[in-house]
Amino acid sequence: MSPLSSDVIEAGRIYRSTGAIPIDKLRPGIYRAWERAHLQGANPHILQVEKLSRLETERLLERNSYLIDVVRPYLQMLWQTAGRDCHAVLLGSRDAIVLDVIGDEQTVCHSEPCAVPGTLMSEAVAGVNGIGTSLVEENFVEIVEAEHFINKFYPFICQGTPLRNDQGEIVGALSVVVHGGANVIQRLKEILLCASQGIEAEFVVAILEKDVRRVLASNPNNYQPLEELRQDIIQAHQAARIQLEMGSRLLVKRLDYAMLLLQQAEKSIQIFRRRSKIWRNLASLEVGTPQPVSLTDAIRDLVDLLSTEAAIRHIEIVTHWNQPITVVADSKSLLRNLFHYFLQAFESANKGGTVEVEVGVDRKPNPELARVSFKPMPVLNTSPSNQTPYVFTCPIEKNYS
Question: Which pLDDT tens digit goes with each residue over 203-213?
Answer without folding.
Answer: 998 888 888 88
